[in-house]
Amino acid sequence: MYSELAGGLLIGLAAAVLWLGIGRISGMTGVMSSLFALHEPQRRWSLWFFIGLVAAYPLFHLAGAEAPMTITDDPRLLIAAGLLVGFGTYIGNGCTSGHGVCGMGRLSLRSVIATLVFMAAGIATVAVMNQLGVSV
Questions:
Q1: Residue 43: how many other CB atoms lie within 10 Å
Q2: Given pLDDT bands bounded at 50, 70 and 90, which one contains residue 3?
Q3: Which residues have CB under 8 Å from 8's CB, separation 6+?
Q4: Residue whose C-alpha is closest to residue 91's, from 49, 136, 121, 124
Q5: Burial class (CB in 10 A: 0-12, 13-18, 19+), 88
Q6: Does 123 have pLDDT greater than 90?
Q7: Are 49 and 28 in contact (CB under 8 A)?
Q8: Which of 44, 91, 116, 130 is most exposed, with the fewest beta carbons within 10 Å of its own?
Q9: Is 63 helix (H, G, I), strand (E, B) or coil?
């Protein structure tokens, strides 16, 4: 329980530091779009953010901590999930980290509604997968 709490606090702290420090929102859609932007000042912060994101799990593991994760080996499920997440991000004008962490932290009504829709869709997806006997 403490590692989940620490993780949540670190995510919130990172979002606050990025917002208060350089005025950027740490939603992954914005990070990835800035990462591939042609303007150098926009690119620098997103590159460091992305490097930190990728390096976090190996560093966590090197510190002797364990975070058991299982991901399906079914390529059809991975492809479908990736396409659905990409489509949802597009029509939702952002991702769960942008709306759920940053938008709700800024008391954005649009982000509150988007987060409620994300949660409902996730609950419905799990319910349908359970009924179909599909396990991840």
A1: 14
A2: confident
A3: none
A4: 121
A5: middle
A6: yes
A7: no
A8: 91
A9: coil
Residue 24 Ramachandran class (φ > 0 left, ψ -120 to 50 alpha, else beta) = beta
Confidence (pLDDT) at 38: 59
Average pLDDT over residues 77-106: 83
Are the CB atoms for 115 and 97 separated by under 8 Å? Answer: no
Burial status of residue 46 (CB atoms within 10 A of its CB: 0-12, 13-18, 19 or more): buried
For the record, the structure tokens of 126 come out as 């799990």
Which pair of structure tokens corresponds to residue 95?
A: 């991702």
Q: For 64-92, what is the mean pLDDT? A: 82
The CA R_g of the chain, rounded to the nearest whole Å, is 17
CA gap 89, 78 in Å, rounded: 16
Tokens of 6: 């620490």
Place of tokens 């997968």: 129
